[in-house]
Task: inverse folding
C-alpha cells in the first residue's frame, strides 16, 4: 500500500458517521483522533494552497500510533515532500485497519 | 474526510477573526483566503483596517494574505516584517512573532516550540474556539475563552444575517479589498 492509498483509506474513517465522541473517529481497528485539529488555516509553504492546521493522531487497537498534520493530505496529493512523518508506520496501520 | 476548508466555515471564521481583532482580543487577525464583498462590508463596519501582505511560496507562487486590525501602526509593523518573505517552516522566531501579533499567550508559543500540539487540559469544545494550541496547564487561555466564545456567538449572528440577506448560500469568490 502506498501512502496515497493509506490516506484515501483513512479519509473513509474521517467521516461523521464514524464519530464516537467529539473529534474522534473509529472504524475497524483504527481510531483517528482529531482533537488537536485547530480552527485556523495556513498556506502550504511549497505552493501556497490552503491547508488545515493542527495535529491528527492515528491509533491502531494494538497500540501503534502515528501523529501527522492535516496538511499531509495536501502534500501527498500535490507531490510535496512528506518529511517528519513516519510514513511506514502510517501505511502499516492502515494496511491492517 | 471532513471538509475543514468548506466556504461557509471560512466565511464564518473571517467574521470571527474580524470580531476578535475589532474587540482587541487579538492585536491582528490574518485571513489567508478571499472573502465576498458583503463580508468585507461587515468587517469595515467593525472599524477594522485591512492591509495586504504578499509572500512567496517555495515554488515561486505569489500569495496575498490580509491582516485585519484597529491599529494602523501594528499593521504596518507586521507588513514590514513579513512583506515579500518566503513562507517556510514554523521556526521559533516566527512562532514568537506571530504569537505577539495574533494574541497567542507567550507560554503557549514557548510550549509549541518545545513540543507542538502537546496534550492540554482544555475540552474539545474549548480548544476548537481557538486559533492557537493552548499549552498544558495554561493559566492565560482559560481567561480568553469567554471572550472568544462571545465573539464567535456574535460572528454566528452576523453570518446568519448575511446569509438571510443573500437569500441563500453564496460561495466565496470575490477578492478581499482593503478596508481603507
Result:
Amino acid at each position: 500500500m502506498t501512502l496515497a492509498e493509506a490516506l484515501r483509506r483513512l479519509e473513509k474513517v474521517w467521516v461523521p458517521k464514524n464519530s464516537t465522541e467529539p473529534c474522534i473517529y473509529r472504524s475497524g481497528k483504527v481510531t483517528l483522533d482529531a482533537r488537536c485539529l485547530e480552527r485556523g488555516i495556513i498556506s502550504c509553504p511549497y505552493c501556497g494552497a490552503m491547508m488545515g492546521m493542527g495535529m491528527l493522531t492515528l491509533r491502531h487497537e494494538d497500540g501503534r500510533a502515528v501523529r501527522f498534520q492535516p496538511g499531509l493530505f495536501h502534500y501527498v496529493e500535490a507531490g510535496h515532500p512528506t518529511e517528519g512523518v513516519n510514513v511506514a508506520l502510517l501505511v502499516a496501520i492502515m494496511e491492517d485497519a | 474526510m471532513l471538509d475543514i476548508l468548506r466556504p461557509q466555515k471560512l466565511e464564518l471564521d473571517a467574521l470571527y477573526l474580524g470580531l476578535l481583532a475589532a474587540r482587541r482580543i487579538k492585536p491582528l487577525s490574518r485571513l489567508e483566503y478571499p472573502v465576498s464583498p458583503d463580508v468585507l462590508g461587515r468587517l469595515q463596519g467593525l472599524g477594522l483596517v485591512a492591509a495586504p501582505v504578499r509572500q512567496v511560496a517555495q515554488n515561486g507562487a505569489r500569495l496575498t494574505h490580509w491582516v485585519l486590525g484597529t491599529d494602523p501602526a501594528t499593521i504596518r509593523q507586521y507588513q514590514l516584517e513579513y512583506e515579500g518573505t518566503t513562507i517556510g517552516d514554523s521556526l521559533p522566531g516566527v512562532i514568537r512573532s506571530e504569537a505577539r501579533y495574533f494574541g497567542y499567550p507567550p507560554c503557549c508559543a514557548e510550549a509549541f516550540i518545545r513540543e507542538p500540539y502537546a496534550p492540554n487540559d482544555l475540552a474539545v469544545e474549548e480548544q476548537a474556539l481557538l486559533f492557537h494550541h493552548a499549552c498544558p496547564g495554561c493559566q492565560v487561555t482559560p481567561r480568553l475563552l469567554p471572550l472568544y466564545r462571545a465573539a464567535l456567538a456574535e460572528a454566528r449572528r452576523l453570518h446568519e444575517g448575511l446569509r438571510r440577506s443573500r437569500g441563500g448560500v453564496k460561495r466565496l469568490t470575490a477578492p478581499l479589498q482593503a478596508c481603507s
In short: Chain A touches chain B through 30 residues (CB under 8 Å). Helices of chain A lie at 3-13, 71-78, 87-95. The beta strands of chain A are 19-21, 24-27, 30-43, 50-60, 65-68.
